[in-house]
Design goal:
single chain, seven-stranded mixed sheet, alpha/beta, 5 helices, Rossmann fold
């Protein structure tokens, strides 16, 4: 699935729509360069699930937990060293009844194969322009989530 996101508010709205189809235990991989809108998407998901506090990138803290229903575990592996992932106890969080959003999943090989994958791309390498968002799934459960998402997101395809 591909959609064009025109601005920051639309990215947040997309995150909210995404949250509406996610279930406890789901994993979402977020890829895209710095400043592409990954944390903005998570902010929209957190708002949809009732979180009113500040949503920030966990670039330096590695993980933020948002007390929503279900809870959101927001990871950012940008500054992570290979052995840090084991120390983090990631598996413990992925086995809980929360939703895991993982930024920079490409920087580790220790992640579940089945997940929803979201790639956010700048259009014409311009931070002031819209974003192209590509959503794909690996695994039957996530194929179902992708089908649900297509029902609640306008992809522009008619």
């Amino acid at each position: 699935m591909q959609i064009i996101i025109p601005d920051e508010q639309a990215m947040e709205d997309f995150g909210g729509r995404l949250a509406s189809v996610l279930r406890p235990g789901d994993v979402v991989y977020l890829s895209g360069e710095l400043g592409a809108g990954k944390t903005t998407l998570v902010r929209g998901a957190a708002r949809r699930l009732g979180y009113q506090g500040r949503v920030t990138s966990p670039t330096f803290t590695i993980m933020n937990i948002y007390q929503t229903n279900p809870p959101i575990y927001h990871f950012d592996f940008y500054r992570l060293e290979n052995n840090d992932l084991e120390d983090l106890g990631l598996g413990d969080y992925l086995e809980k009844d929360g939703i895991a959003f993982i930024e920079w999943p490409c920087l580790t090989g220790e992640l579940p194969d089945q997940a929803l994958h979201i790639q956010i791309e700048l259009v014409d390498d311009d931070y002031e322009r819209e974003r192209r968002v590509l959503v794909s799934a690996s695994g039957m459960e996530y194929d179902a989530r992708l089908k649900e998402l297509k029902k609640v997101v306008d992809t522009g395809d008619r």
